[in-house]
User: Fold this.
Amino acid sequence: MASRSVLVKCYWACYWINLVISHIVAIVYWICIYPEEPKRNLVNNIYNMWIHAVPPLTFTVDHMVVAHPSRLLHFLYPFVLTLGYAGFTYVYYLLGGLDPIGRTFIYRMLDYEKPVRALKTFGMITALLVCCSALQYGVYRLRVFIARKLGKLQ
Assistant:
């Protein structure tokens, strides 16, 4: 069985991945995907808000109140996941995968028939990943600052 410290480190890595990727999914969805979708009814709009706007907010509030350690190099965890996702989408394309409408790409911005666009997309997502990680590190530093001012930390 794995030691407790290894399990805690794995939990922290998964926590950081979830924290950062939720922001990236929300930003990419609202900027790139939502404008191209057909107009939806109120129920679909509420659902979109629930799955693309609420998680980053609740995860940030959670990050503000829990005592998880954060480091700037933690951006590597979601970066590895992003590389895995890029690999998956490329293999999906190579094997002839289709979306529900019959197109050869999962999202228009990841159309490998236009490789420059796909590479730019992953470059921008990587930059966004670093920015979101730095933002969450800033939230951590703010939490530590407040805790010190309140006398909760030595």
Notes: The radius of gyration is 18 Å. Residues 83 and 122 are 9 Å apart (CA to CA).
